[in-house]
Amino acid sequence: MLPRFLSILPKSKQEALVTLADTDGAAVVAGGTDLMVRMKKGESHKYLIDISGLKELWGANILDGRINIGSVTSFRALSMDPLVSTLAPALSQAASWIGSPQIRSMATIGGNIVNASPAADTIPPLLVHDARVVLESRDQVRAERLEDFITGPYKTAISSKEILSALRIEQLDGYTEGYRRIAKRAAWAISRLGVAWAISESDNTFTDVRLAIGSCTPAPFRARNVELFLIGKKREAPVIREAVSLCLSEIRRISGERPSFAYKLPVVRDLLGLLLGGR
Ligand SMILES: Cc1cc2nc3c(=O)[nH]c(=O)nc-3n(C[C@@H](O)[C@@H](O)[C@H](O)COP(=O)(O)OP(=O)(O)OC[C@H]3O[C@@H](n4cnc5c(N)ncnc54)[C@H](O)[C@@H]3O)c2cc1C
Predict the structure, then answer these.
(1) Most buried residue, 5, 44, 100, 237, by CB count within 10 Å?
(2) Which of 103, 136, 184 to mutate to test the pocket of ligand 1 (most atoms within 8 A of CB)?
């Protein structure tokens, strides 16, 4: 059973920020798809400030040359947004595969990030796009790199008086990009592995590579050693084999040996081989 709580429905972002600052025992709720599960297991809050209806925090546009995505944009809206599917197809693909139609209608991108699951599907594509999170409290606005914001499994640098209001992601002109995930089933299943990539090349040579991997390490990560190794190299089988081997070593370095690696690492190896080989 859910513990008792009072629901607060602010009419604006400013009202939400002031209420959060002034109310002890209040937490923010958006879609509730993580929070309600936690509250059923015993987490309790006296007040829930429901920000899901705030239009100021909804939708995608271009702001100062970056793609600006409101934090309460649902996965359904994100996967159907023409701006996102054109300029950040990896993110659009990730959003379209999350959970089930019901979950995609409720769950938000901001909640996915603040929850910071190692298996969160939006995080690898956002890392590839060098995402910044915008955090607002009553008294200040600050921006932080997503890579620094997530500090561990289910841990972020958000304070209890802040709202994640938006994500600002880099536009990647001239890249091919995508997201693939492996899960036990196509729907209602948490990713066992998620890989986002963006590659630019010229004359069969990698000019830039961005690679982010989820569900293998305490937090999704950018495989920067692999990226650096590949830049300036030909897209050839021995180069790709070496890059894949570097990636597997990096996963082991971050996570140590895990029982699941008997299954996961061969999947990472084969998937990366295909992606980097351009198939
Ligand atoms: C059946 C099921 C299947 C799922 N499948 C997947 C899947 O395939 N892939 C995947 O990645 N995830 C999956 N999820 C989890 C996914 O639904 C959530 O991570 C979701 O994105 C969280 O968003 P929300 O709006 O529901 O967050 P909520 O549950 O409302 O909030 C989650 C946490 O974030 C905080 N919060 C939320 N929004 C903000 C904000 N803007 N500012 C500050 N704090 C905030 C809340 O206080 C809370 O601590 C699944 C969940 C379920 C129940």
Answers:
(1) 5
(2) 103
Question: Using an 8 Å Cβ cutoff, are 80 and 104 in contact?
Answer: no
Question: Which DSSP symbol is given to 234?
Answer: B
DSSP 65: T
- Three-state DSSP class for 255? helix
Convert the pLDDT of each residue in 104-145 to its tens digit: 999 999 999 999 999 999 999 999 999 999 999 999 999 999
- Dist. CA 276–CA 206, nearest whole Å: 10
Which amino acid residue places its CA nearest to atom 11 of ligand 1?
120
Q: How far is the CA of 115 from the centre of ligand 1 (A)?
A: 6
Task: Measure 50 CA to ligand 1 centroid, in angstroms.
Answer: 13
Cα–Cα dist 108/92, whole Å: 13
Pocket test for ligand 1, best of 7, 8, 20, 29 (most atoms within 8 A of CB): 29
Contact 135, 51 (CB under 8 A): no
CA dist., res. 49 & res. 71, Å (int): 15
**Each residue of 243-269: pLDDT tens digit?**
999 999 999 999 998 888 988 899 999
Per DSSP bridges, beta strands 60-63 and 66-70 are: antiparallel
What lies within 8 Å, CB to CB, of 175 at 6+ separation is 198, 199, 200, 208, 210
The residue behind tokens 């271009």 is: 62
- Residues counted in the chain: 279
Model confidence at 241, in pLDDT bands (50, 70, 90)? very high
Between the alpha carbon of residue 260 and those of residues 153, 192, 257, 263, 264, the distances in Å are: 17, 9, 9, 6, 6
Contact, 70 vs 103, CB < 8 A? no
